[in-house]
Amino acid sequence: MNYPKEIDYHIELSSLKEFANKLIENKVVPIDAQHLFSVLKQAVINSEVAPFLRKPITQEHDGYYNKYLRLEEENNSNNVIPDFFSHKGDFYDMDRNLNFSRSYVNDEHFQVLFGLKLIELDSLKANIKEFLDFQLYDNYNGNKEEYGNFLHRLIAKDSISYLLPSINNEIQQWIKLNKISLALTYNENDVEIDSVDNTTNLIVDHWEVKKNQKINGRMSVEEIKHFFSFLYKEEYEKSSNYEFKPILTKDEVDLIFSNGLVIPAKPLENKVKLCIPPRFPKKVIDYAIYKFFNENSYSYRDKKDYILFFANYIEDYKNALNSKIALESLAKNITGEISKSVKINWDIYVPKRLL
Protein backbone atom coordinates (compact mmCIF):
# COMPACT_ATOMS: atom_id res chain seq x y z
CA MET A 1 0.00 0.00 0.00
CA ASN A 2 1.30 3.48 -0.89
CA TYR A 3 0.89 6.04 1.85
CA PRO A 4 0.82 9.77 1.05
CA LYS A 5 4.04 11.60 1.82
CA GLU A 6 3.78 13.96 4.77
CA ILE A 7 4.17 17.57 3.69
CA ASP A 8 6.95 19.46 5.48
CA TYR A 9 6.17 23.17 5.81
CA HIS A 10 9.67 24.06 6.95
CA ILE A 11 12.06 25.67 4.46
CA GLU A 12 14.47 22.76 4.39
CA LEU A 13 17.82 22.45 2.64
CA SER A 14 17.85 18.98 1.07
CA SER A 15 14.31 19.15 -0.34
CA LEU A 16 14.92 22.62 -1.83
CA LYS A 17 18.15 21.45 -3.46
CA GLU A 18 16.51 18.33 -4.90
CA PHE A 19 13.49 20.25 -6.17
CA ALA A 20 15.60 23.05 -7.68
CA ASN A 21 17.62 20.49 -9.64
CA LYS A 22 14.40 19.03 -11.04
CA LEU A 23 13.33 22.46 -12.19
CA ILE A 24 16.73 23.08 -13.76
CA GLU A 25 16.68 19.71 -15.51
CA ASN A 26 13.10 20.01 -16.80
CA LYS A 27 13.43 23.72 -17.64
CA VAL A 28 9.88 24.30 -16.40
CA VAL A 29 10.66 27.74 -15.00
CA PRO A 30 13.79 29.89 -15.38
CA ILE A 31 16.16 29.10 -12.50
CA ASP A 32 19.57 30.70 -12.05
CA ALA A 33 21.35 27.66 -10.63
CA GLN A 34 24.49 29.52 -9.63
CA HIS A 35 22.60 32.25 -7.82
CA LEU A 36 20.42 29.76 -5.97
CA PHE A 37 23.51 27.72 -5.11
CA SER A 38 25.15 30.80 -3.61
CA VAL A 39 22.02 31.54 -1.55
CA LEU A 40 21.87 27.98 -0.20
CA LYS A 41 25.60 27.98 0.56
CA GLN A 42 25.38 31.20 2.53
CA ALA A 43 22.40 29.89 4.50
CA VAL A 44 24.29 26.72 5.42
CA ILE A 45 27.39 28.68 6.47
CA ASN A 46 25.33 31.10 8.56
CA SER A 47 23.55 28.24 10.30
CA GLU A 48 26.91 27.28 11.87
CA VAL A 49 26.60 23.57 11.10
CA ALA A 50 29.87 21.66 11.25
CA PRO A 51 31.59 20.71 7.98
CA PHE A 52 31.77 17.01 7.21
CA LEU A 53 35.40 17.36 6.09
CA ARG A 54 37.89 19.89 7.39
CA LYS A 55 40.92 21.16 5.57
CA PRO A 56 43.93 19.04 6.61
CA ILE A 57 47.03 20.63 8.03
CA THR A 58 48.98 19.03 5.22
CA GLN A 59 47.51 17.68 1.97
CA GLU A 60 50.54 15.62 1.02
CA HIS A 61 49.05 12.24 1.96
CA ASP A 62 45.34 13.13 2.25
CA GLY A 63 43.85 11.35 -0.74
CA TYR A 64 40.30 11.57 0.69
CA TYR A 65 40.44 15.37 0.84
CA ASN A 66 42.02 15.61 -2.61
CA LYS A 67 39.19 13.46 -3.94
CA TYR A 68 36.66 16.10 -2.90
CA LEU A 69 38.78 18.84 -4.44
CA ARG A 70 38.61 16.97 -7.76
CA LEU A 71 34.87 16.34 -7.43
CA GLU A 72 34.24 20.01 -6.69
CA GLU A 73 36.13 21.00 -9.82
CA GLU A 74 33.95 18.62 -11.83
CA ASN A 75 30.80 20.06 -10.26
CA ASN A 76 31.77 23.54 -11.41
CA SER A 77 31.21 22.51 -15.02
CA ASN A 78 27.65 21.27 -14.39
CA ASN A 79 24.59 23.50 -14.28
CA VAL A 80 23.16 21.85 -11.17
CA ILE A 81 23.28 22.40 -7.43
CA PRO A 82 25.81 19.87 -6.09
CA ASP A 83 25.60 17.70 -2.97
CA PHE A 84 28.43 19.56 -1.23
CA PHE A 85 30.56 22.70 -1.36
CA SER A 86 33.73 24.06 0.16
CA HIS A 87 34.19 27.18 2.25
CA LYS A 88 37.58 28.32 3.51
CA GLY A 89 38.93 24.88 2.72
CA ASP A 90 36.26 22.97 4.67
CA PHE A 91 33.58 20.88 2.94
CA TYR A 92 29.88 21.13 3.83
CA ASP A 93 27.03 18.74 3.07
CA MET A 94 24.15 20.05 0.93
CA ASP A 95 22.27 16.76 1.15
CA ARG A 96 21.33 16.95 4.81
CA ASN A 97 18.25 17.88 6.82
CA LEU A 98 18.55 21.52 7.84
CA ASN A 99 15.61 23.87 8.40
CA PHE A 100 16.36 27.44 7.39
CA SER A 101 15.12 30.46 9.31
CA ARG A 102 15.28 34.18 8.59
CA SER A 103 18.14 34.46 11.07
CA TYR A 104 20.35 32.47 8.69
CA VAL A 105 20.04 34.74 5.64
CA ASN A 106 19.25 38.32 4.69
CA ASP A 107 15.76 39.33 3.52
CA GLU A 108 16.64 39.10 -0.18
CA HIS A 109 17.96 35.54 0.16
CA PHE A 110 15.07 34.48 2.38
CA GLN A 111 12.66 35.72 -0.28
CA VAL A 112 14.35 33.43 -2.84
CA LEU A 113 14.14 30.40 -0.53
CA PHE A 114 10.54 31.16 0.43
CA GLY A 115 9.51 31.52 -3.21
CA LEU A 116 11.18 28.25 -4.20
CA LYS A 117 9.43 26.46 -1.33
CA LEU A 118 6.09 27.79 -2.56
CA ILE A 119 6.73 26.38 -6.03
CA GLU A 120 7.72 23.04 -4.52
CA LEU A 121 4.50 22.89 -2.49
CA ASP A 122 2.44 23.93 -5.51
CA SER A 123 3.96 21.07 -7.53
CA LEU A 124 2.99 18.65 -4.72
CA LYS A 125 -0.59 19.98 -4.72
CA ALA A 126 -0.07 20.92 -1.09
CA ASN A 127 -2.21 23.39 0.83
CA ILE A 128 -0.53 26.77 0.30
CA LYS A 129 -2.74 28.41 2.92
CA GLU A 130 -1.52 25.98 5.59
CA PHE A 131 2.08 26.75 4.63
CA LEU A 132 1.45 30.51 4.89
CA ASP A 133 -0.23 29.99 8.28
CA PHE A 134 2.70 27.89 9.46
CA GLN A 135 5.38 30.34 8.30
CA LEU A 136 3.66 33.24 10.06
CA TYR A 137 4.76 31.66 13.34
CA ASP A 138 7.74 29.60 12.21
CA ASN A 139 9.68 32.59 10.89
CA TYR A 140 7.74 35.73 11.88
CA ASN A 141 6.73 34.92 15.48
CA GLY A 142 3.12 35.83 14.73
CA ASN A 143 3.97 39.39 13.61
CA LYS A 144 1.34 39.86 10.91
CA GLU A 145 2.45 43.37 9.99
CA GLU A 146 6.02 42.31 9.25
CA TYR A 147 4.88 39.10 7.53
CA GLY A 148 2.33 41.03 5.49
CA ASN A 149 5.01 43.44 4.28
CA PHE A 150 7.15 40.47 3.27
CA LEU A 151 4.29 38.86 1.32
CA HIS A 152 3.51 42.16 -0.43
CA ARG A 153 7.16 42.35 -1.54
CA LEU A 154 7.06 38.71 -2.62
CA ILE A 155 4.20 39.23 -5.07
CA ALA A 156 5.38 42.65 -6.24
CA LYS A 157 6.11 42.93 -9.95
CA ASP A 158 9.51 41.50 -10.91
CA SER A 159 10.33 40.44 -7.33
CA ILE A 160 10.56 36.76 -8.27
CA SER A 161 10.09 36.25 -11.99
CA TYR A 162 9.21 32.57 -11.70
CA LEU A 163 6.54 32.86 -8.99
CA LEU A 164 3.48 31.29 -10.63
CA PRO A 165 0.18 33.22 -10.97
CA SER A 166 -1.68 30.49 -9.05
CA ILE A 167 0.68 31.00 -6.09
CA ASN A 168 0.29 34.77 -6.27
CA ASN A 169 -3.48 34.30 -6.07
CA GLU A 170 -3.12 32.10 -2.99
CA ILE A 171 -0.96 34.73 -1.29
CA GLN A 172 -3.39 37.52 -2.14
CA GLN A 173 -6.28 35.46 -0.77
CA TRP A 174 -4.33 34.80 2.43
CA ILE A 175 -3.55 38.52 2.85
CA LYS A 176 -7.20 39.37 2.29
CA LEU A 177 -8.46 36.64 4.64
CA ASN A 178 -6.14 37.85 7.40
CA LYS A 179 -7.07 41.49 6.76
CA ILE A 180 -3.45 42.54 6.37
CA SER A 181 -2.47 45.81 4.76
CA LEU A 182 0.76 47.76 4.75
CA ALA A 183 -0.69 50.21 7.24
CA LEU A 184 -2.84 47.98 9.45
CA THR A 185 -2.22 44.76 11.30
CA TYR A 186 -5.09 42.50 12.27
CA ASN A 187 -4.79 41.38 15.87
CA GLU A 188 -6.47 38.09 16.80
CA ASN A 189 -6.79 39.25 20.40
CA ASP A 190 -8.67 42.47 19.60
CA VAL A 191 -12.13 43.04 21.05
CA GLU A 192 -14.94 42.24 18.59
CA ILE A 193 -17.86 44.68 18.29
CA ASP A 194 -21.37 43.28 17.77
CA SER A 195 -22.90 45.44 15.03
CA VAL A 196 -26.48 44.56 16.07
CA ASP A 197 -26.68 45.79 19.64
CA ASN A 198 -23.27 47.56 19.79
CA THR A 199 -22.11 45.42 22.73
CA THR A 200 -18.58 44.16 23.07
CA ASN A 201 -17.73 40.46 23.02
CA LEU A 202 -14.31 39.29 24.05
CA ILE A 203 -12.85 36.50 21.97
CA VAL A 204 -12.58 33.34 24.05
CA ASP A 205 -8.95 32.23 24.34
CA HIS A 206 -8.20 28.95 22.60
CA TRP A 207 -6.55 27.78 25.83
CA GLU A 208 -9.51 28.74 28.07
CA VAL A 209 -9.96 25.20 29.44
CA LYS A 210 -6.29 25.10 30.49
CA LYS A 211 -6.46 28.15 32.74
CA ASN A 212 -5.63 27.55 36.42
CA GLN A 213 -4.58 24.01 35.49
CA LYS A 214 -1.67 22.51 37.38
CA ILE A 215 0.75 20.48 35.28
CA ASN A 216 1.56 17.42 37.33
CA GLY A 217 5.08 16.09 37.05
CA ARG A 218 8.00 14.36 38.68
CA MET A 219 9.87 17.43 39.93
CA SER A 220 9.10 19.59 42.95
CA VAL A 221 8.93 23.36 42.55
CA GLU A 222 12.42 23.73 44.04
CA GLU A 223 13.78 21.12 41.64
CA ILE A 224 12.16 22.94 38.72
CA LYS A 225 13.73 26.23 39.82
CA HIS A 226 17.08 24.50 40.10
CA PHE A 227 16.72 23.05 36.61
CA PHE A 228 16.13 26.51 35.13
CA SER A 229 18.87 28.07 37.20
CA PHE A 230 21.10 27.42 34.17
CA LEU A 231 19.51 30.57 32.73
CA TYR A 232 21.45 32.73 35.20
CA LYS A 233 24.36 30.44 36.08
CA GLU A 234 25.78 29.46 32.69
CA GLU A 235 28.21 31.87 31.00
CA TYR A 236 27.76 31.39 27.27
CA GLU A 237 30.40 33.73 25.89
CA LYS A 238 33.79 34.37 27.37
CA SER A 239 36.21 37.07 26.32
CA SER A 240 38.23 39.82 27.92
CA ASN A 241 35.58 42.38 26.91
CA TYR A 242 32.51 40.31 27.77
CA GLU A 243 30.46 41.24 30.79
CA PHE A 244 28.32 38.29 31.84
CA LYS A 245 24.60 38.95 31.57
CA PRO A 246 22.25 36.08 32.36
CA ILE A 247 19.52 35.07 29.94
CA LEU A 248 17.12 35.53 32.85
CA THR A 249 17.89 36.65 36.38
CA LYS A 250 17.25 34.52 39.45
CA ASP A 251 14.39 36.83 40.41
CA GLU A 252 12.80 36.34 37.00
CA VAL A 253 13.10 32.55 37.22
CA ASP A 254 11.58 32.65 40.73
CA LEU A 255 8.76 34.85 39.39
CA ILE A 256 7.90 32.37 36.63
CA PHE A 257 7.52 29.50 39.09
CA SER A 258 6.12 31.54 42.01
CA ASN A 259 2.81 29.63 41.82
CA GLY A 260 4.39 26.34 40.85
CA LEU A 261 3.77 24.74 37.47
CA VAL A 262 0.28 26.18 37.03
CA ILE A 263 -1.03 27.70 33.79
CA PRO A 264 -2.37 31.03 35.06
CA ALA A 265 -5.82 32.41 34.37
CA LYS A 266 -4.24 35.59 33.00
CA PRO A 267 -0.84 36.07 31.32
CA LEU A 268 1.80 38.02 33.17
CA GLU A 269 1.29 41.64 32.12
CA ASN A 270 5.00 42.49 31.95
CA LYS A 271 6.45 39.24 30.68
CA VAL A 272 10.14 38.52 31.15
CA LYS A 273 12.29 38.66 28.03
CA LEU A 274 15.19 36.36 27.25
CA CYS A 275 18.52 38.18 27.04
CA ILE A 276 20.11 36.21 24.21
CA PRO A 277 23.82 36.99 23.74
CA PRO A 278 25.39 37.22 20.26
CA ARG A 279 26.07 33.88 18.55
CA PHE A 280 23.93 32.07 21.15
CA PRO A 281 21.16 30.03 19.47
CA LYS A 282 17.69 30.42 20.99
CA LYS A 283 17.27 26.75 20.09
CA VAL A 284 19.14 25.96 23.32
CA ILE A 285 16.26 27.45 25.32
CA ASP A 286 13.80 25.46 23.19
CA TYR A 287 15.83 22.35 23.96
CA ALA A 288 15.82 23.15 27.68
CA ILE A 289 12.02 23.39 27.68
CA TYR A 290 11.81 20.11 25.78
CA LYS A 291 14.23 18.40 28.16
CA PHE A 292 12.31 19.71 31.15
CA PHE A 293 9.07 18.38 29.65
CA ASN A 294 10.73 15.04 28.87
CA GLU A 295 12.12 14.65 32.41
CA ASN A 296 9.08 15.96 34.26
CA SER A 297 6.06 14.68 32.33
CA TYR A 298 4.18 11.55 33.33
CA SER A 299 2.29 11.12 30.06
CA TYR A 300 4.55 12.73 27.39
CA ARG A 301 1.30 13.89 25.77
CA ASP A 302 1.09 17.32 27.39
CA LYS A 303 3.92 19.23 25.67
CA LYS A 304 1.50 21.97 24.59
CA ASP A 305 0.55 22.52 28.24
CA TYR A 306 4.19 23.23 29.04
CA ILE A 307 4.43 25.66 26.14
CA LEU A 308 1.27 27.44 27.28
CA PHE A 309 2.77 27.79 30.74
CA PHE A 310 5.95 29.47 29.46
CA ALA A 311 3.99 31.55 26.93
CA ASN A 312 2.17 33.18 29.85
CA TYR A 313 5.42 34.33 31.43
CA ILE A 314 8.08 34.73 28.71
CA GLU A 315 7.80 37.35 25.97
CA ASP A 316 9.64 35.20 23.44
CA TYR A 317 6.97 32.46 23.57
CA LYS A 318 3.84 34.58 23.98
CA ASN A 319 2.64 33.95 20.40
CA ALA A 320 1.49 30.49 21.48
CA LEU A 321 -1.38 32.31 23.22
CA ASN A 322 -2.59 33.83 19.94
CA SER A 323 -4.12 30.78 18.24
CA LYS A 324 -4.13 27.01 18.01
CA ILE A 325 -2.01 27.22 14.86
CA ALA A 326 0.60 29.32 16.66
CA LEU A 327 0.67 26.88 19.58
CA GLU A 328 1.02 23.86 17.28
CA SER A 329 3.76 25.54 15.25
CA LEU A 330 5.78 26.35 18.35
CA ALA A 331 5.26 22.83 19.70
CA LYS A 332 6.69 21.36 16.49
CA ASN A 333 9.78 23.54 16.79
CA ILE A 334 10.52 22.62 20.41
CA THR A 335 12.23 19.27 19.98
CA GLY A 336 15.10 17.22 21.31
CA GLU A 337 17.46 18.68 18.71
CA ILE A 338 20.36 20.39 20.47
CA SER A 339 22.92 22.87 19.23
CA LYS A 340 26.45 21.54 19.32
CA SER A 341 27.86 25.06 19.66
CA VAL A 342 26.76 25.45 23.28
CA LYS A 343 28.01 23.01 25.90
CA ILE A 344 25.82 22.64 28.97
CA ASN A 345 26.15 19.77 31.42
CA TRP A 346 22.46 19.10 31.94
CA ASP A 347 23.21 16.46 34.59
CA ILE A 348 23.99 19.34 36.94
CA TYR A 349 20.44 20.63 36.65
CA VAL A 350 18.34 17.45 36.39
CA PRO A 351 17.53 15.98 39.85
CA LYS A 352 19.93 13.13 40.56
CA ARG A 353 17.06 10.81 41.40
CA LEU A 354 15.82 11.14 37.81
CA LEU A 355 19.16 10.43 36.13
Overview of this structure, please?
With 355 residues, the chain is mostly helical. It has helices at residues 13-26, 33-46, 63-75, 107-123, 128-138, 144-154, 165-177, 221-227, 230-233, 250-256, 283-296, 303-311, 324-333; strands at 11-12, 84-87, 90-93, 99-100, 192-193, 200-201, 213-214, 262-263. The strands form four sheets. A two-stranded antiparallel sheet has the order 1-4. It has a two-stranded antiparallel ribbon with strand order 2-3. The protein has a two-stranded antiparallel sheet with strand order 5-6. The longest helix is centred in the N-terminal third of the chain and has 17 residues, at 107-123. It is globular, with a radius of gyration of 23 Å.
What letter string, H or E per element, gives the SSE order?
EHHHEEEHHHHEEEHHHEHHH
Major β-sheet strand ordering: 1-4
Arithmetic mean of pLDDT: 82
- Give the distance, in angstroms, between the N- and C-terminal Cα atoms: 42 Å
Largest β-sheet summary:
2 strands, antiparallel
Shape: globular
Structural class: mainly alpha
The number of helical elements comes to 13
Give unreliable regions as ranges. Answer: 183-203
Tell how many strands the DSSP assignment holds: 8
Radius of gyration (Å): 23 Å
What is the percent of helical residues?
A: 40-55%
